[in-house]
Design goal:
Structural class: alpha+beta
Strand content: 15-25%
Number of domains: 1
Largest sheet: 5 strands, mixed
Helix content: 25-40%
CATH topology: Cytidine Deaminase, domain 2
Distance between the termini: 56 Å
Radius of gyration: 19 Å
């Protein structure tokens, strides 16, 4: 699915609106995201922080998880918005979660300033680990190593 300017604007609007709902009591860094699947369904998300920092969830992941919750796995594009003067790229954890749905997902990051990131996920996460690393061939090889280790331990 090619994202035209009208669709991109809907995603930008969705990300901006989601940002208004961010719960960022600790960082004071609100983020909104909008994700679109190949059938044109849009899911939005905002960051939700937690006093136990490790349990904080980023906007991008919340948007993707909402999409999956609605039965869609064919992610095409994600727009990320921060109300800052400098654009922010997705964090490493978000990049890895997005990669689960394909390395050719379009990533657009915008802010209140003139900067913009518009690239493919593969540009942000080169040489990534993902579902392709867990193919039957890889599992078979791992299974063989496991069997060999069991044999050597039983001797």
């Amino acid at each position: 699915m090619k994202i035209n300017e009208e669709t991109l604007q809907k995603l930008i609007d969705g990300a901006r609106n989601a940002c208004k709902n961010a719960y960022c009591a600790y960082s004071r860094f609100p983020v909104g995201a909008a994700a679109i699947s190949s059938d044109g369904a849009i899911s939005i998300g905002c960051n939700v922080e937690n006093a136990s920092y490790g349990l904080t969830m980023c906007a991008e992941r919340n948007a993707v998880f909402a999409m999956v919750g609605n039965g869609r796995l064919d992610l095409v594009c994600v727009v990320i918005y921060t109300p800052t003067n400098v654009v922010s790229a997705p964090c490493g954890a978000c990049r890895q979660v997005l990669n689960e749905f394909g390395s050719e997902i379009r990533i657009v990051s915008i802010c209140d300033g003139p900067e913009r990131i518009d690239c493919l996920l593969s540009d942000l996460l080169p040489l990534s680990f993902g579902p392709q690393n867990l193919t039957a061939d890889n599992k078979s090889a791992e299974g063989q190593r496991g069997k060999q280790n069991q044999k050597s331990q039983s001797r």
